[in-house]
Amino acid sequence: MAVTHPTLILVVLLLALLAFHYQSIKDRFAVSESRWLLVLIAYIVASLPLVRWPGSVIGGNFAVLVRSVVFFFFVVAFVDSLKRLNTFLLVFLFSQLARCIEPLAMHLNSGYWGGQTYFDGEFMQRLAGAPADPVNANGLAFVILTVVPFFHYWATYRNRFWSTISYLLGMPALIYALTLTASRSGLIGFACILVGFVWFSKVKIRWLAAFAIAAVFALPILSGSLRDRYQSLFDNSSRQNATVQGRISGLSSNFEVFTARPVFGFGLGTSLEANFNVVGETHYAHNLYLETLIELGILGFAIFAGYLFSVFRSVRRLLRLARDNTFMSLSGDAEVLQWLPKALFVWVVMCAIFSIAAYGLSEYHWYLIGGLATTTLRFAVLARKNVSEESQVEPVRGRPGSRPAFRGSRAPVQTFPSGSKVGP
Questions:
Q1: What is the pLDDT of residues 147-169, one digit of tens each?
Q2: Cα torsion at 377, 381, 386, 387 (round to 10°)?
Q3: 25 Cβ contact partners less than 8 Å away, ≥ 6 residues apart
Q4: How many other C-beta atoms can be found within 10 angstroms of the C-beta atom of residue 400?
Q5: What is the Cα–Cα distance from 387 to 410, expressed in whole angstroms?
């Protein structure tokens, strides 16, 4: 008897609610990201007769993609005020933070690892997700890299006692947990995040000095196997360099699989089947871009690439709005517009580079990024408009040069659902 995943039932209910109120929120979906995603879904359905294994797509792979894609539509639909945006970000940030801290605490208390890797005739332990968390060591590294930019900018921009304390305690724990995952792609992703921090910082020399000091103190406490694993990225004589070469040869094999069915691909979520049947490999395509080519072909890849470029454009536009100091006077819930653009930009760049060594077509993060970028951009454009209009308001009598401070959206509100406020 088939079992329906409970999250899929929730997705269906929320989609029904969204459809019922679609007329009141349809303007929010008039963005290129939404159109690209709808075209992508339509393409996957229409190409079913033309792919190699349509049964695998229908049997479960399509449902997995739907549970991820709806992150975009649900964020755009239900995050309808700056207060809800702040609430959503805090819930997301601290729930992901808990996923990182739990396995680390278990490791410190009871020696828990959760994962391992094999090289040169021996096994090396690696920190993975908690027992109830399905992520492996590389997956935990990605969760940590997701938390770091949001945690950094949220804590430093708030600059309040509890946020500062949580940052000083939480960030070292996250970095330590990342090193225990022994994820080389995680190390590269973390380097990208650090470059982003330095790029946006006004005290670049201090950041560089802090990184150098941290590296000097961190290297001696790493085990020999961990140091060897990270050195294998650039040292051909390291014991684990063979696994690096294996990843590189895997990319070549993945490209060979793609060329076997280049137009329409093998079907959504079938890179494991394709690799096994074409070249005898027993792994999924560990590269988002080759994974998409294998599963959806050139046409599907072009559609997905269109979505990614739309997301990049939205994030860059959001960053430009935040850079012109328009939002420096904002307070209350609107403070999120000062720090979120930088966190999103750093996260996007990290994801793009991390995806070179990880699959992700049916994972949630690219669709959540698109939803957050679209929603935050909508609020940012409205905030800039209101700040500009208020700067032209006649000063209050007796207080030359004064003007009211923007504290959130003042646009006319709609109702959706149950009287909640909706932006334009």
A1: 999 999 998 887 778 888 888 88
A2: 90
A3: 18, 77, 80, 414, 416, 422
A4: 7
A5: 11
Which is it for strands 114-119 and 122-127: parallel, antiparallel or unpaired?
antiparallel
**Spatial distance between the Cα atoms of 332 and 83, rounded to a whole number of angstroms:** 9
Q: Residue 125 belongs to what H/E stretch?
A: strand 122-127
- Look at the block and give the residue holding tokens 């005898």: 280
Answer whether residue 419 shows pLDDT above 70: no
Angle of CA points 307, 311, 314, to nearest 5°:
140
Q: Token pair of 167, please?
A: 């940052």
Residue type, 116: Q
**Angle subtended at Cα 177 by Cα 175 and Cα 180, rounded to the nearest 5 degrees:** 115
CB 74 within 8 A of CB 14: yes
Alpha-carbon distance 273 to 56, whole Å?
A: 9
Considering the entire predicted model, what is its pTM?
Answer: 0.86
Domain boundaries, the chain: 29-389
pLDDT band at residue 219 using 50, 70 and 90 as cut-offs:
low
Tell me the C-alpha to C-alpha distance, in Å, between residue 85 and each of 107, 251, 293, 336. Answer: 34, 39, 34, 8
d(CA 288, CA 352): 9
| Residue whose C-alpha is closest to residue 190's, from 170, 204, 176, 201 | 176
Please give the radius of gyration of the chain, using alpha carbons only, rounded to the nearest integer.
23
DSSP secondary structure, 118-175, as one string: EETTEEEEEE---TT----HHHHHHHHHHHHHHHHHHHHHH--HHHHHHHHHHHHHHH
Q: What average pLDDT does the chain have?
A: 84
Going 13 to 19 to 22 to 25, the CA torsion angle's sign is positive
Q: What are phi and psi of 261, to 5 degrees?
A: -145, 75
Minimal CA–CA distance to 153: which of 367, 339, 410?
A: 339
For 228-275, the pLDDT digits (tens) are 788 777 777 787 777 777 778 888 899 999 999 999 999 999 999 999
Amino acid code (one letter) for 217:
F
101-115 residues labelled b (16+ CB within 10 A) or e (exposed): bbbbebbeeeebbbb
The answer to whether the beta carbons of residues 14 and 67 sit under 8 Å apart is no
User: Alpha helices, DSSP H only, in 59-136?
Assistant: 62-78, 82-110
Q: CA-CA distance, 316 to 219, in Å (whole number)? A: 36
Range of lowest pLDDT (103-112, 113-122, 182-191, 315-324): 113-122
What tokens appear for 225 in the block? Answer: 């196997």
